[in-house]
């Protein structure tokens, strides 16, 4: 990480978020620099869905070059279920698998529309990625796999479900 220009931060620290946003803006303003690679989900999930994107990456401006990545688990599964396997078991499974096959699709560049806010832009990019990768779009944060779901979120989903019937 020291040989490249990583931007590390503590998500819970507001001052870190502002510093990262500033560094990203400076980076994209310098046309001599390479594009930034950002994983806006903030976590990896089980290769079936695209979770909620963090909006910060979509607030700074610039052009987004979406990439859809989907692992093919036929020869070896790259997904690490940290609630089931230790890091050592996962590492052993990966290095002893026949192959880790990954499909990568580079999608057309996207820019934020004039009247679009960062959340809507992030959702539009997420939908394009999910469609190309053949994955479903989920409206919640990938962090839910490690945290208790808020009651208000459960109630909102229950109301939506009741309206379907």
Automatic annotation (TrEMBL):
<comment type="pathway">
    <text>Phospholipid metabolism; CDP-diacylglycerol biosynthesis; CDP-diacylglycerol from sn-glycerol 3-phosphate: step 1/3.</text>
</comment>
<keyword id="KW-0443">Lipid metabolism</keyword>
<keyword id="KW-0472">Membrane</keyword>
<dbReference type="InterPro" id="IPR045252">
    <property type="entry name" value="LPCAT1-like"/>
</dbReference>
<dbReference type="GO" id="GO:0005789">
    <property type="term" value="C:endoplasmic reticulum membrane"/>
</dbReference>
<keyword id="KW-0256">Endoplasmic reticulum</keyword>
<keyword id="KW-1208">Phospholipid metabolism</keyword>
<comment type="similarity">
    <text>Belongs to the 1-acyl-sn-glycerol-3-phosphate acyltransferase family.</text>
</comment>
<dbReference type="GO" id="GO:0019432">
    <property type="term" value="P:triglyceride biosynthetic process"/>
</dbReference>
<keyword id="KW-1133">Transmembrane helix</keyword>
<keyword id="KW-0808">Transferase</keyword>
<dbReference type="GO" id="GO:0008654">
    <property type="term" value="P:phospholipid biosynthetic process"/>
</dbReference>
<keyword id="KW-0812">Transmembrane</keyword>
<dbReference type="Pfam" id="PF01553">
    <property type="entry name" value="Acyltransferase"/>
</dbReference>
<dbReference type="GO" id="GO:0004366">
    <property type="term" value="F:glycerol-3-phosphate O-acyltransferase activity"/>
</dbReference>
<dbReference type="InterPro" id="IPR002123">
    <property type="entry name" value="Plipid/glycerol_acylTrfase"/>
</dbReference>
<keyword id="KW-0594">Phospholipid biosynthesis</keyword>
<comment type="pathway">
    <text>Lipid metabolism.</text>
</comment>
<feature type="domain" description="Phospholipid/glycerol acyltransferase">
    <location>
        <begin position="1"/>
        <end position="70"/>
    </location>
</feature>
<protein>
    <submittedName>
        <fullName>GPAT3 acyltransferase</fullName>
    </submittedName>
</protein>
<keyword id="KW-0444">Lipid biosynthesis</keyword>
<keyword id="KW-0012">Acyltransferase</keyword>
């Amino acid at each position: 990480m020291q040989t490249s220009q990583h931007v590390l931060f503590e998500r819970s620290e507001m001052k870190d978020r502002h510093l990262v946003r500033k560094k990203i803006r400076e980076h994209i303003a310098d046309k001599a620099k390479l594009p930034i690679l950002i994983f806006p989900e903030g976590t990896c999930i089980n290769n079936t869905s695209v979770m909620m994107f963090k909006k910060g990456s979509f607030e700074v401006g610039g052009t987004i070059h979406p990439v859809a990545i989907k692992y093919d688990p036929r020869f070896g599964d790259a997904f690490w279920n940290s609630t089931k396997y230790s890091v050592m078991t996962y590492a052993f499974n990966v290095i002893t698998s026949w192959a880790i096959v990954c499909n990568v699709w580079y999608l057309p560049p996207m820019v934020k529309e004039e009247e679009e806010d960062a959340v809507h832009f992030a959702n539009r990019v997420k939908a394009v990625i999910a469609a190309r990768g053949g994955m479903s779009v989920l409206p919640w944060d990938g962090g839910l796999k490690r945290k208790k779901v808020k009651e208000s979120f459960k109630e909102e989903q229950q109301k939506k479900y009741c309206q379907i019937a």
